[in-house]
Amino acid sequence: MSGIVDRRGERNRRSPPTVVVHCIGEHGGGEHGFGERSFGEHDGVRELLAGLEEEGVPVRLADPGEWGDGPGGDGPSVTAVDLAHAAARASPLDVGVGIDSDSRVCVHHAKRPADRPVITTDATRARWCGHNAARLVVGLPLKEPPEQLEETWPHH
Amino acid sequence: MTLLVGVDIGNSTTEACLAELGPDGPRYLGGALAPTSGVKGTAENVPGVVKVVQEALSAAGRAPHELATVLVNEATPVISGLAMETITETVITESTMIGHNPDTPAGAGLGTGTTVAFGELDTCESGERVICVVGAGVDFEDAAAGIAAARDRGVEVTGAVVHADDANLVVNRLPEPIPVVDEVTLVAKVPLGMPAAVEVAEPGRTVRTLSNSYGIATLFDLDPDRTRLVAPVARALVGNRSAVVVRTPSGDIADRRIPAGTLTLIGEHSRLSVGIDAGAEEIMAALRRVAPLADATGEAGTHVGGMLATVRDAMAETLSDAAAEQDVRIQDVLAVDTFVPQHVTGALAGEFALENAVALAAMVRTSRAPMEALAEQLRSALGVAVVVGGVEADMAVLGALTTPGTERPLAVLDLGGGSTDAALATGDGEVRSVHLAGAGDLVTKLIDSELGLDNREVAEDVKKNPLAKAESFFHVRMEDGTARFFDEPLPAEAFARVVVLGEEGMRPVPTRHSLEKVRQVRRSAKHKVFVVNALRALERVAPGGNLREVGFVVVLGGSALDFEVPDMIAEAVAGAGIVCGTGNVRGCEGPRNAVATGLVDNRAERAR
After folding, report:
1. Distance, CA of B357 to CA of B340 (rounded, Å)
2. Is position B236 within any domain?
């Protein structure tokens, strides 16, 4: 046998390359200081997706139950880190983001140990997390945290 | 049989060489090394000396009471200083510009029109050509909706300037894309109601119109005089993917030029003045013509004057009080062309332009360091005889001659931190030596300023270690193309960054420069200082200035441990048929311990 398997037929069944986001819990609109917007998702998710879109990286919001990590499922004990790692492993790009019911946001990479995520922060920095999740995919250095956005070195 | 130890007190390290003196010459028992305590040549050095002596003794398994004599060299009575000044400056008048490189500008093409604040967009008339300026706190959906509504009313919004990192989000929500430049931190300072142009290039390309003086002249209908004023803007925008230029009424920022000034080199027979803006090559050529140098002065009220004053001040600080009173006469200068990223005066997003600069290292000869006082203190601290003697250069040559495969005539190149020293021992035992300004510290300074690091420690790391780029969380690509894998995931801060792999592990270099650029800056800094100085020094000590008369060159000193400097020097002198390489004192110490070994060797010669 040649050992070569024709996989072209499987191509359509595979999911397109995206960053995967797992989010549980409901968060009211004004809670995080983003005004009164309501898009059915909480503002953390909106900002997160905006960050990824600005960097031009495709993203998919997935039901965490589908890939829920371990027996906890989507119970309140599941942390953003668990969600993010599960999301990263489900992502063809190896990058996932998790948002838990405590508004913690975590960016993870599938190849990193489960307990050592790339970033953990809260939903007020969701936009920054979105940028950085995208940058992991495209291979750009991570952005400085929002407080230090001013560049301290030249741009050439 | 007597046990002696030679001690070399250097600027940064103190080295010892322990030997037993028998009837058939010295038997070397080992060496030791410790950081120098205090300023070289002062009584503060005692703890450092005591430490190396004890370490050398215990390493050889000898007791302190067996020690007969400690030999200390006469420190080279030179100190050096550094200064750097820019000689060009980008000042923008009659226009302001935004020329930073956000990672993600959006749209592509060129938009022109009058600048209008986002809030004022609904007051614009139909048919008006405008550039929309979106300030802080405006959401991207609102911005896109506002611009789309204005365009529906017939207002030609041809481009936008945005405060947040929002360009793609705004453009993705417009029915038709327009060029948008984002991450403009000082968006509030963009003048409103003025003619402006926004240009964004396709990914992978750079702006074409706004980086061309005539492009700007065409857009704003400028006459030749005004085109001349706008030329620095075009120059500052070269290489950017996105740019904004706003025409402002004249006289906002005055044009000014800093006089670079002239440097007067006073030789023993003649004097020559040379303009600093002529560049390093001219200055060094003038220096060769007046050599030997007796002193150098800079024109007061100019950059050169300031530079030499800085150097003299720095020297006065290191000199002892008594020595400070004497004239500080500059015995050598090394000028190096460099460039410094400087804030552009009149720019709006904290832009930098690379300005030409000249770095100047200078060296002065001082009165002899108070070695006798130091020796007296050592005598009481160690309880043994302490002998001061031996000129450092002579001792270095003797030590270098213990390198396997060398013989006279032999030249020593001592690459230190502050100065590059050379000594040549001819066949008849005569030693000629020279001390030149400029060495490792200048290299660090050049790397620091050319990369805009503003951090000496990082610059030092970049100087001493090969670079790598963290390509994933588990591997880096070294600068020679090889990959190196790690078991532990790399820290997130290092991801996709240029890193140095130093002794203390991996350290990201805080720069947006590519690995190739950082490497090129590092190598050119080393070349401009060490290779230039090595050739200069060898020419000065070689008989008749002819390098071919020098048989062997042994590279010594802290910078001889550098991973590429000795190779660069060997390559540069290869043409003269010289055997050049890093020293290996006593066949085991490498480029270290030459002076300490020379002290012992010298003593042994005399004893015979």
Report:
1. 6
2. yes
Q: How far apart are the first and last CA of chain A?
A: 55
Q: Residue B490: inside a domain, yes or no?
A: no
Paired strand residues for B159: B131
Cα–Cα distance between B41 and B378 in angstroms, integer? 12
ipTM above 0.95, yes or no: no
What is the assigned CATH class of domain A15-140? alpha beta
Domain interval for residue B273: 81-89+257-365
Distances (CA, A) of B36 to B12, B24, B46: 5, 33, 9
In a domain? residue B476: no
Average pLDDT over residues B286-294: 88
Question: B 193-252 residues with CB below 8 A of A?
Answer: 239
When divided into structural domains, chain B yields a total of 4
Closest CB to A154 among B166, B352, B492: B352
Beta strand extents in B170-213 (DSSP E only): 180-181, 195-200
Single out the residue in B227, B247, B267 at which a domain terminates: B247
Among B139, B165, B495, the residue with its CB nearest the CB of A54 is: B165
Q: Which amino acid is at B442?
A: L
* Euclidean distance between CA atoms B273 and B173, whole angstroms: 63
pLDDT in tens, A116-156: 999 999 888 999 999 999 999 999 999 888 764 444 343 33
- Residue B479's contacts (CB-CB under 8 Å, 6 or more residues apart) are B466, B467, B468, B515, B519
CA separation (Å) from B441 to B13, B87, B417, B511, B585? 15, 21, 5, 21, 24
B156 and B236 together in one domain: yes
Mutate to test the interface with A, among B495, B497, B517 (most CBs of A within 10 A): B495
Chain B residues with CB inside 8 Å of A112's CB?
Answer: 473, 489
Q: Among residues B338, B365, B392, which one ends one of the domains? A: B365
Q: Is the distance from CB of B489 to CB of B472 less than 8 angstroms?
A: no
